[in-house]
Amino acid sequence: xxxxxxQRGTRTFxxxxxxxxxxxxxxxxxxxxxxxxxxxxxxxxxxxxNIIFPGVTVPPLAISNQSVRQIVHxxxxxxxxxxxxxNFFGTTPVTxxxxxxxxxxxxxxxxxxxxxxLRFGGVGNVTLAPGxxxxxxxxxxxxxxxxxxxxxxxxxxxxxxxxxxxxxxxTNYLSPGNQTGATVMGNATTTSVYFWLSEVDASTAGASDxxxxxxxxxxxxxxxxxxxxxxxYGSTASANRRWPNDLDNRVQAAAEDLGRVSVVNAAIAGNRxxxxxxxxxxxxxxxxxxxxxxxxxxxxxxxxxxxxxLGELIPQQNVSADQIIAAMQATIAQAKASGIKIxxxxxxxxxxxxxxxxxxxxxxxxxxxxxxxxxxxDGVLDFDQVVRDPSNPTALLPTYxxxxxxxxxxxxxxxxxxxxxxxxxxx
Length: 427
Description:
Elements: H1 3-33, E1 39-43, E2 47-48, E3 62-63, E4 66-73, E5 78-86, E6 94-96, E7 98-106, E8 109-110, E9 116-117, E10 126-128, E11 133-135, E12 139-143, E13 148-155, E14 159-160, E15 163-165, E16 172-176, E17 189-191, E18 194-195, E19 197-203, E20 220-226, H2 228-231, H3 243-253, H4 255-258, E21 261-265, H5 282-291, E22 296-302, H6 305-313, H7 321-337, E23 341-345, H8 358-372, E24 379-381, H9 383-387, E25 388-389, E26 392-396, H10 410-418
Parallel strand pairs: 20-21, 20-22, 22-23, 23-24
Antiparallel strand pairs: 1-19, 2-15, 3-14, 4-13, 4-16, 5-11, 5-12, 5-19, 6-10, 7-8, 7-9, 7-13, 15-18, 16-17, 25-26
C-alpha cells in the first residue's frame, strides 16, 4: 500500500470519527433539549361530560370525522411547548389521526407560519386507551406570555365524548373532516366545551425570556382550585376575566419582583369537596389536578359552596361544616406532603341564590371561621370579606353580582384577584 493511500485512509477514518463524535454530541444535546424543566402555562381539569348535577342528565354526544379547534390562553410563555391529551374518563379508545398547535389569530383562525404538527413518540397520530393521558413530543414554538394558542385535533372515528372540561368560558370550534391545517376552518360550529385537552406546558429552554439559569431563577406555578366561581362562570365569555386570569395579569406585571410565575386554573364548575358529581370530589382530585400539574408550587383554593347548597337540596348528600373542614384539613396535609404551599379562600356569600337557606348560611360561616383560623395552611384568601355587601353580609355586593346572587361578574372577579397579596409568591 502506498504512503499516499495510507494517509488518505487515515484522514478518512479521522474525518469519519469526527462525524460520529459530532452526531453523538448532537444526540446528547437533543436529548437534553427535550427534557427541560416544564411548567404548566394552561390547564383544564378533566371531568366526565355525562355526569352533572344529581338528577340531571345530558344527551350523549359523539364526534365523528370532525376537527376540533380549541383556544387556550397562556400564562407565562416559553420557546418549547408540549400538549397533554386525556381520555381520563373514557370507556373506549379515542384516536386522533392528526393533531396540531399554532398561534391563534382570533375567531378560530391561526397563523399558518406557526402551525406545528404534534407527534407522540415520533408518530403523527395517537390512540388513547380508556383512562390514558399522553404528552405530545416537545415542539419548538415561540409562545409569548398571555398569548392565544389553537390546538386542533382530527377525530376520524365515531367516538363518544366523555373526557371534557364543560364550562370552558371560551369559544372553541368544530368542523367536518380533517381541517387541522386550515387557516380558518370551514363550516365551523362553536362550543364552549374543551374536548380531550388537559394541559399545555412550556419551557424557557432557549432563553425566550432572557433567563438562562433555571437553578438560580426557579419558576413557580400557582394552581387555582375550586368550583364555578374559580372556573369563571358569570364572567364575559372568551375574555379571560376569571379571577385567576386577573391574578395572572397582576403577577406578570410584577415579574421583575416575583420572577417567573405561571397561573393556571384547575377549577370545575359544580365541584364539591365531599361528593363526586361534576368532576371527582375535590379531596380526591387534588392529586391529579394540583400535585399532578407540571411544576406546581402554590395552590389557591375556593371550594365548598356546592357542598352546602346541594346538600340542602339533596338530603342524602347533606354534609356538615365539620365534614367540609375535615376535607380541607386532609387537603392541607396533601399539599404539605407534596411540597406545595396552600392558601384557603373563604366561601363567598350567596343569599338570594337558588339553593340558599339559613341552615346553609350557618355552615358557610362555620367553615369560614375555620379558614380564618390558624388552620395549618400557608395563608388565607378572604374572598368573603372582599365581595360581600357591608349592609347585608350574607349577600354579594350588588356591583359584584353577575345576576344569580352566587357568581361574581367581571368587576367582582377583579376585586377578588386584587385582594391577593402577591408577596406570598416571592419565595
